[in-house]
Design goal:
The protein has 221 residues and is an alpha+beta fold. The chain folds into two domains: 6-132, Archaeosine Trna-guanine Transglycosylase, Chain: A, domain 4, CATH 2.30.130; 137-209, no CATH class. Helix content is 20%, strand content 31%. It has five helices and eleven strands. Strands 1, 2, 3, 4, 5, 6 and 7 form a seven-stranded mixed β-sheet that branches. It has a four-stranded mixed β-sheet with strand order 8-9-10-11, with helices on one face. A hairpin with a 2-residue loop joins strand 9 and strand 10. The two termini are 36 Å apart.
């Protein structure tokens, strides 16, 4: 699993489809609804209102192990009279079905069809909105790396043409600003995706110089 691995979120609307997922390990996507293609290492599943307590959340995911283009009637021969029986579908073979814990919920009740996201966003997400982050990838990765260190940062995704995305970390003796572009005054230059580990170390050193985080592992209760 790599941060840049692609994740496709699909919707499960019928209990019989979830049963197929569990017992036969495949999921179908109408060819016409895959506008961005099926370029994903992982498939995650958003459950509709038919699933009671699972309604409105992403509770399971699996690694994609294969793909075929087949007719619906071949996938679901028991539904041969369906109006779309001869339509083409992508049959996505999947590996072991795994629980997403905690699940990704949909507190804002936004419409969900297919969502394309990345592994780092998916594993850190608590709400569907988190999957749509349009921040540059390395800004998100530094944010989550700091979070794992117990450092809470504020993401500024659009700081303007001259400043770019930023992370701001309140400290006991000021604020550490990490930006993708030079700023007036003191700041830390955010790392590139290839140097995230080094960049996080630089940011942590700057936080320490300013007395430690205002809300973090070194702050008083």
């Amino acid at each position: 699993m790599y941060p840049e691995d692609r994740v496709l979120v699909g919707v499960i609307k019928r209990k019989r489809d979830f049963e197929k997922l569990q017992t036969e390990h495949w999921y179908r996507v109408p060819q016409g609804q895959a506008g961005q293609g099926i370029y994903a290492e992982y498939i995650a599943f958003f459950f509709s209102r038919a699933f009671g307590e699972l309604n409105g959340g992403i509770h399971y995911y699996a690694r994609r192990t294969g793909i075929e283009l087949v007719r619906r009637c071949d996938l679901l021969p028991e539904e041969a009279s369906h109006p779309r029986a001869h339509a083409l579908y992508y049959k996505l073979q999947i590996g072991e079905l795994r629980r997403k814990d905690p699940p990704v919920l949909n507190a804002r009740r936004r419409a969900v069809s297919f969502i394309h996201t990345t592994w780092d966003r998916f594993v850190a997400a608590h709400d569907v909105a988190d999957l749509y982050s349009d921040a540059e990838d390395f800004v998100d990765r530094v944010f989550y790396a700091l979070e794992r260190q117990g450092i809470r940062a504020e993401r500024i995704l659009s700081g303007g043409a001259l400043s770019g995305p930023q992370l701001r970390i309140p400290c006991r003796e000021g604020i550490v600003i990490a930006s993708t572009a030079p700023l007036d005054g003191e700041h830390v230059l955010l790392p590139t995706p290839e140097t995230v580990e080094t960049g996080v170390g630089t940011i942590l050193a700057a936080v320490k110089q300013r007395g430690g985080p205002l809300n973090g592992p070194d702050s008083s209760s």
